[in-house]
Each structure stands twice: as C-alpha cells, then as structure tokens.
Amino acid sequence: MKRNLLAMAAVGGLMAGCSGGSESTEQNDVALAPGETTEQPNPDRNVYFGDLHIHTRNSFDAYIFNVRTTPEDAYKFGMGEGITHPSGYDLKLEGPALDFMAVTDHAAYLGHLPAMDTEGTEISKLDMAKDMFSADPDKIIAAFQLIGGAVRDGRKMDGVYDPKIIGDVWKATIDAADKYYKPGKFTTFSAYEYTATRVTQGEGGGFAGGNLHRNVVFRGSAPDMPFGTLDSTNPEELWNWMDEQRAAGHDGLSIPHNSNVSDGEMFKLETYNGQPLTKAYADQRIRNEPIVEITQVKGTSETHPSLSPNDEWADFGIYEYLLSSQIKSKVNGSYVREALANGLMLEDKIGSNPFQFGLIGSTDSHVAGGSFDEKNFWSKVGVVDGTPEARGSVPPGGKKSWEGVTVDPRAASWFSRWGASGYAAVWAEENTREAIFDAMRRKETYATTGTRIKLRFFGGFGFDAAMLDDPEMVSKAYKDGVSMGGDLVGQGKAPGFIVWAMRDAMSAPLQRVQIVKVWTDGGKTNEKLFDVACSDGGKVDPATARCPDNGAKVNLADCSISTDKGAPELKTFWRDPEHKAGQRASYYVRVLENPVCRWSTWDAIRAGVPPNPALQKTIQERAWSSPIWYVPTKV
User: pTM score > 0.90 for this model?
Assistant: First the structure.
C-alpha cells in the first residue's frame, strides 16, 4: 500500500467533518464494569458509555491523511486494545473500555480512496488516483478537492463513483460490527455518516459548508446499501428512506451533529426547501431523529453567549467556523437550547415538536480511536493535527517561547479550538443492541465532554425531598414519574425533579448541578438557568439562583488540582419556583466539575513551554441530561 504524501500543512479544501458525600450507589443503580454482565436485565437500568461517531480508512477524509486503520481496529480500540496513529505513536484508552460503539464512515465515496490506492483495481488506473497518490502536493490537493467538492455537492462523478465499492465496503463494515458484538460486554452497531452540506458562497467566489451531517445507526439488521448525500443532499429524503427501511425490518435512527457549524441550517424554522413546517414534517423528523449529538471534538452545540447572555458557562467549547473555511457559522438555528425552546413554540403552533430530542456526545475521531482525555489528546485529522506543534499548542521548530511565533492559520482557527470530547451515555436494562438502541429511541441518554459522570434525572408531581434517602428511590421514580427524555403530563401542581450526579473517579470532583429551563409565553421563547445543588456545603442564593464559588484551583505549572474542594456526589430535589400551569416547558440538567487543565496546557507542560496565550488554559468538564418536557393537560 503506497504511503500518501499529504502530510503537508497546505490542504486547501480540508473536509474535517465530518447522595451527599459518598461515591457509593444503591444496589439497583450500579453501572456495570467493563467485561461484566448481568445475569438478568436490570429493571432500574445501568449506565453505559460509548462512542457513536468514529471514522476509519474507509472515509475519504481519513485515508487522505494517512489513516490506515480499519473498522476492526476501531472496535479493538473500543475494547481497550492499542492501535497506531498515522503519526506513528500508540493510541489507547487510559480509562475503562467502551461499553458500546459504532463505526460511522462517510457513505459518500465509501472505500473509494483505499481502492484508488490498491494496484490492479479499475479505479486505481484513473488519472485522479494517480494524482491523489503522487509525489506532487499540488496534484494531491487538486485530486482531493475533486472528491471533497463532489461530496459537498452530492454529485456522483462519472467514471469515479462505483456503487460496487460502496456495497462491498458497507458489507465489510456490517460484518465487523457483527464480529465484535459481545452481548452483555461490548455492543456494536452497523452505522454510517450521511454527509450533507448546504453550500455558502463566501467573498471572492469561495465556498463554505453549512453542516447538515448525521450518523445513521441501525438497531439490528442493516440494508444492503447506505443512503448517502450522493443520493440526496436533503435530510428529509433520508428520513423517507429510513421510514421505508423500518417498514422492511431495518429500524434505525439518525443523529445530527455539529449543529454549531450548520450556518443556522440544522434547526431552522422551515424545511430544507424553504417551506413552512407542518405537523407531518415534525412527526417524521422526531421519529427518525430522537437524539442529537451535543458535543464532540469540533465543538459543543449547547448554546452560544449571544443566545444565552445570562449563562456564565455558555462560552464552553465554542467553535464557529464552517467546514473547510474561515467563515463563521450563523448562530440562530445552530444550537440545541434555542432549538428546544423553538420546538415548544412550534408545538403550540402546528401541534407537534420537531426538536423534542434527547442528547448524546461522541468524538468524530478520524483515526479510528476517540480522544476523550484532556491529558492524552490526539485531535482527529490524522497526520495534519497529530502533533502539538501542528495543532498550535506548542511553538513550531523547537522554540521555547511564543514571542514572534506565527501559528499556522488552520491551527489557529481550527485545530487549536477543538476539544477532547465526548461520550454517549445511556441508561439501559442490559448491554445489548436492543436495550441500548431502545434507550436512545426513548431518549434516556445524556452527554459528557469525556468524563464518566453518572447522571440520573427524574420528574414527577408526587416527588419530594424525602425520596432522596429512600433505598428504593430509583424504582419509585420510574414507577411514579418519568426519567430524562420523558413527557411529564399533568396540570396544576408544579413538577418536582430529582437529580443525582456521581463523579468520575479519574476526573475532577463535582462543583455544581444546574437545571436549564426553556419555555414559551405569549408566542415568545424564554430560558433560565438555576443552580440546584452546590458542593462544599454551599447554598444556592435565592436572589441569583447561583451557588457560591467553591474556590477550586488549578496549578498551571503541573496541572494539579484542589484536592479539598468539590463533591464526589450531588443529589437533590428541586421544584420549579416559577411554574405556571398550562405553560409548556422543557428542563435539562447540566453538571459541572471543578476546573482542570485544557489539553493544550497539558501539551505545553510536556514540551516545557508556556501555554499558547491565545487559548483557554483550563476548562470545566460537564455533562448534560436529555430534557424532561412538562406537557400541561387541558382543564
């Protein structure tokens, strides 16, 4: 296999895109350790952590950057084995193995670049193939841009597009998922990425891509061919196809990601073709897209400071550049919290909510292994950002100072702004395809930024604080209320909520638990952030709805953190003090850890240089629950 020379820095058309005081848990609430199985399914459910967004050599924008690992390698990584980064170093999870995983290579031109790089294949004889794997950087870039442009435009290039290659590689992808599926221990799903883009014309005739990408995950059996952007760039056509496949026995769900760089397209208030939204549209969308990926390496899509000016933590993981460009994405229509509010408004208007989705995280790694840990970050784009120098966290050329250093524009604008994130977490009866998929379908899911916080969230009208000490709390909460992802239907009395968060022993202690409320009033959308549980004995100030600062610090010389601040567990009951009967509302939990060093600071310390002054030095890892929706009944 020839070695692709695209290790250079000048890739013009980069398509990179694709309860109080104890850590103990009640017997019914213990998450399975990797490798363990339950003798019987747990009706109170276990938490499982996974990654539903992984690329291998079969993605065009992975192979071009020297990624040669396969779907089988990816699953081995997920099970705790080591694999090799394109830059030559070893990749391995530092913590527990994953519980579940899906390889999601781009359906568009699936497997075409490996076939171009294999002597004797018909596609290897093309001039494009010869240029793609030549020694001339200009030819490589031009050839890669042809593929990237065709993906962006949803175009099947004559003489290049080969459905047999796609079909053969898709079958091998399914076979790999089936081979590594170990019920009760490690769950795999047949999956792929649908890579639709809305083209935005920039100044000087350039372009940028408004991201409309989705990962399509199948519950069990999968169809013979994936439906990709070369079939249609309209996600509504994807949903039509998914409905047809479901009727044929291939149940699946579509998971939008990177709405932060969708240029306002992901959650816009009209159809793909600009028509008004209808109940039929909303019903079909939420049937096929019950969950959304809120965080990954290319940024976090919860909210934006301009949308949530009263949220002091709204600036986390902000990455705004459209794919392959220096153009910033439009804010409205690009973030989850705004979409949750707009969904309530649409339900009032059209009788259905297209944005009634749950939340997960994943990585979007393009090197077959996800980078979850700030201390051990390898980014995502193979040889292009595989070193600290290439991603702008260490000065180039062995320099020990940032004075006079000019950082590569792609590192400054793109790679250095990315993050070590994230996990998909689900509450399911057992670690099987059926149980985990069904948890995603009912939205009993949550997202983290790479930490394994355990998070429970329940709502009910008959809940009270005394439940927190009840050893049967979880069972009773399921019986008498709803869990995250559910509808709380009623009228009159304000809903009460139980939140239970437990720290990741390998990460920082917990600092606070918050509930974000969004609602509609008089045709307008609103939001408010409430701190509901504080660490270190702190009390929520009723005037500000905030906990006091717990004083946790980070030593930037060695990244050590305060050992006497924060909580191993925060567990609380909260009733909405501003509830109005008859007013639709959505509530979700956000859990914040104490601050830790960002990956870029870790890179600098290891290199013996100061952190890049243009970058944040610390972050607060976090988790977000799927919402609970208050649905008032008519009096």
Answer: yes
